[in-house]
Amino acid sequence: MRYLVTTFRTPEFDPGVIDAHYAFLDDLRQQGKLDLAGPFTDKTGGAYLIQAANKDEAEALAFRDPVHTSGSSVVTVYEWDAK
């Protein structure tokens, strides 16, 4: 299954977390779990598309994202039936 992960910056957003966030995404990509990723052009956050067995696994992956663990962004996971 594919899951769309959205990240929206909070008022406590720390720009210093960006490098760790990109390293996290690179790790997902190397594991074959990341399909697409990118920031929103309005700088409010971004989104990425991951593959997981179920929503619990997808949330476990996404909630390890440094933008989430640092409180810099609100991370939400959606099951996505993209065609």
Report what the structure shows:
The protein has 83 residues and is α+β, with helices and mostly antiparallel strands. The protein has one domain: Alpha-Beta Plaits. It contains three helices and four strands; from the N terminus they run βαββααβ. A four-stranded antiparallel beta sheet has the order 2-3-1-4, with helices on one face. The longest helix is centred in the N-terminal third of the chain and has 13 residues. It is globular and about 30 Å long. The model has no long low-confidence stretch (mean pLDDT 97). It comes from Marinobacter halodurans.
How would the blueprint of this fold be written?
Elements: E1 2-9, H1 18-30, E2 34-39, E3 45-51, H2 55-62, H3 66-69, E4 73-79
Antiparallel strand pairs: 1-3, 1-4, 2-3
CATH fold title: Alpha-Beta Plaits
Structural category is alpha+beta
Domain count, please report it: 1
Strand-and-helix sequence, N→C?
EHEEHHE
Low-confidence stretches: none
- What is the residue-mean pLDDT, rounded to a whole number? 97
The proportion of residues in beta strands is 25-35%
State the end-to-end distance.
12 Å
CATH class: Alpha Beta
Query: Main sheet?
Result: 4 strands, antiparallel
CATH superfamily: Dimeric alpha+beta barrel
Assembly classification: single chain
- Please bin the fraction of helical residues: 25-40%
Total of DSSP H or I helical runs spanning 4+ residues:
3
Order the strands across the largest sheet as they lie in space: 2-3-1-4
CATH architecture: 2-Layer Sandwich
* Radius of gyration (Å): 12 Å
Give the strand tally: 4
Shape: globular
